[in-house]
Amino acid sequence: MYEARIRAIVEKLAELQRKPGTEGWFGVEKHHFRLNAPLAEAELEAFEKRHGVRLPEDYRQFLLLAGNGGAGPYYGLGALVEFDEWFEEEDAEPGFVASPCPFVYEQVTSAAWREYLPEDRSDWGRGSIHICEQGCTYTARLVVSGASRGRVFNFDASHGPAPPYFVRDKNFIDWYERWVDEAREGEPAWDFGFDNPDYDAVRAEQARPLPGERRLI
Length: 217
Known about the structure:
Strand content: 5-15%
Number of domains: 1
Largest sheet: 4 strands, antiparallel
CATH architecture: 3-Layer(aba) Sandwich
Helix content: 25-40%
Distance between the termini: 41 Å
Order of helices and strands: HHHHHEEEEHH
CATH class: Alpha Beta
Structural class: alpha+beta
Radius of gyration: 17 Å
């Protein structure tokens, strides 16, 4: 289903490897627009069996056909083995990845987002996997279980009082190809992935903090 599109993305990355003037771009010094070797089918199936999930099909095929980490937004994509970044201890719990992600797109992009945040901060990583290092305590995660399965959200692992930030793209491949296409036109925005207009209600509500709560923006 995604094979032709993934092949085209790999070709675009090859163009970027030859593009002059990218050396100073954020993160390029780490990945140089190169992907790691693809993941073997047996390794992927072993991961899915261990965690009781099947990864979203576009991401699954990307791992098998394009590469297992490497070139990507910010500091690049993490390999599948790094899936539990920031939640290593929680992942020891059986079913942590297979449990539904507590974040539902339509809920956390609403003005009432506070109502939908889990009380236990350790639950924030449930049903999702780390896919991209953004620097400091920021990460991008892919929902693999639950109502928003397949979507990518940005997350502050320091657990600040803010909702996860779902990117505007509806799946991993849309998000990733948009980054590649932006890089072909020029350096991607420093805040790539933080341009979802559905968060307008959240921003407005954040501007009115609860009593005793610091402002978030």
